[in-house]
Amino acid sequence: MTTLTRRTALLALAAAPIAAPAVLAQTPDRITYLYPAPGNLPAFAPFALARQRGYYQAENLEITWQTGRGGVDVATQLAAGNATLGGGIGDTSIIVRAQDAPVRGVALLGGRTLTQVYVRRAANIRSLAELRGKNVGVLAFQDTTFFNLLGVLRANNMRREDVNVQAVGAAGMIQLMIAGTLDAICGVPEWAASIEAANVPLDMFNIDQVFPAMAQAIMASDQTIAQRPETIRRFVRATLRGVNDIKADPAAMARLYTQAVPEHAGREALIESIMRRYVDLVYTTTTPEALGRFDEARMARVQAFYVENGIIQRAVPIRDTFTNDFIGARS
Fold first, then answer.
1. Which candidate among 136, 157, 255, 292 keeps its CA 20 to 30 Å from the CA of 232?
2. For residue 70, which phi and psi values (nearest 5 degrees)?
3. Distance separating alpha carbons of residues 283 and 291, to the nearest angstrom
């Protein structure tokens, strides 16, 4: 070995201890995210796009994606420490907090509501009040689609018994509307798009004009919020970039989404239609800066309804059900 070669080797060895901390600093922040339903559903497109576009990687996050059995189950798992973050609806934390599960919403994916009332045009239902006596589908009787329907009925001086409410599952919501067995559903944009794709004309009624329902939410336990605030902040930031991408260009994002989720390959036109519905019906906010934020008064109105109708047994301090600390400036 020449003198120059030995000197180069010694310099490399001397530099190694200094370089090691820089490598360690790049170790990914590992988390588990729990979907409330299968992650290949278009409702979760912002997450798929954030993965596809490298937003989570840019935030130094390494994520294990798992699926729970609805938002309440996800919140229960978060409270038990079985996942870092998870999904539900904006009001899920109200339900579980009343059951002593220390979970709260950390980001709201839109300023409007995930669910709407869709009616078959052939049923000739011209107002929500004309749901009386009709067959109306919901996902399940412990699901937000049912709770939101109760709010709609109450706002129109009706009770559950005034309509024939049927819990039919996701596939049933689509199939039974196409068959004409159901007159209406309280459902999400992709179900309506699939029904209309089968040449069944629909009319839609906005729930949030009569009941303060909400969009999807990202949730975390109080313990995770206290111990890993920057992890949450980075995950929320990356996910909201996915929402904003859809808002900016639904057509381009539909093409990218079908690449990220191969189950939807060849369905770009349908996915674009679904994304445009989400932009108009769910993601819209009063200002761009409001995306992700919870409204305290709206949360309080939902809780009051749930207590009055026996959906939860007691009210909790409403500020314990959400935080806006991870959206822009702290509040």
1. 255
2. 95, 165
3. 8
Handedness of CA 119, 120, 121, 125 (dihedral sign): negative
pLDDT value of residue 8: 40
Contact by Cβ (8 Å): 186, 145? yes
Give the Cα-Cα-Cα angle 98, 99, 102 (nearest 5 degrees).
Answer: 85
Structural domain ending residue among the three candidates 191, 209, 227: 209
- Could you give the CA distance from residue 242 to residue 246 in angstroms, rounded to a whole number? 7
What secondary structure, in 3-state letters, does 265-312 show?
A: CCCHHHHHHHHHHHHHHHHCCCCHHHCECCCHHHHHHHHHHHHHCCCC
Give how many domains the chain has, as a whole number: 2
Low-confidence ranges of the chain (pLDDT < 50): 1-24, 330-331
- 331: amino acid identity, one letter: S
The residue out of 147, 178, 209 marking a domain boundary is 209
Q: Are 235 and 51 in contact (CB under 8 A)?
A: no
Positive or negative CA dihedral for 33, 39, 44, 45? positive
**Token reading at 158:** 């009706």
Q: Spell out the SS3 assignment of 211-239.
A: CCCCCEEEEEEHHHHHHCHHHHHHHHHHH
Longest dimension (CA), the chain: 95
**Rounded to 5 degrees, what are φ and ψ at 196?**
-65, -30
- Between CA 276 and CA 257 the distance in angstroms is 14
pLDDT for 249-282, tens place per residue?
999 999 999 999 999 999 999 999 999 999 999 9
Q: C-alpha distances in angstroms, 104 versus 29, 77, 91, 93, 322?
A: 22, 13, 9, 5, 5
How long is the chain? Answer: 331
Alpha-carbon span 256 to 233, nearest angstrom: 25
Together in a domain, 129 and 59: no
